[in-house]
Amino acid sequence: MDDQELTVLAISRANDPDGSKLRAALEAHFEVERLHALRVFLLYLMCVSGVPVWIAAGWPALLPAGLRNLSLLAWAACATGSVMCTISELRWRRRLLDGEADLARSRTVSS
């Protein structure tokens, strides 16, 4: 996914007098960006917490049981959070696309 996207939204006061359509589209955009950043952060944490899990799988006597359990719990929590972020991000992305389509539709109706 390219992080350098540019979206041009041409709106008029006649079709969106109070700016609610633009506000909804921008809110959806910010939520998508926030959830994407959180998902990437959780994936990095999964990688970091996966190292002790990998070591414990290869050499069980090398790490104490408490550290093994903690790292496995952290990995599972990050994986669950990542799945939840992905689902939320897809929902907000759908709202964003619907909002952009609504803005484009209102622009072409008046033209």
Top keywords for this entry?
single chain; 111 residues; mainly alpha; 77% helix
Describe this structure in words.
The protein has 111 residues and is mainly alpha-helical. It has one domain (22-110). It is built from 2 helices and no strands. α1 (20-58) packs antiparallel against α2 (65-110). The mean pLDDT is 86.
Characterize this entry briefly.
The chain has helices spanning 20-58, 65-110. It is mainly α and 111 residues long.
What is the topological layout?
Blueprint: H1 20-58, H2 65-110
Helix pairs in contact: 1-2
The major beta sheet can be summarized as:
none
Count of runs of 4 or more consecutive helical residues: 2
Sketch the topology as an H/E string, one letter per element: HH
Tally of strands: 0
Strand content: under 5%
Helix percent band:
over 70%
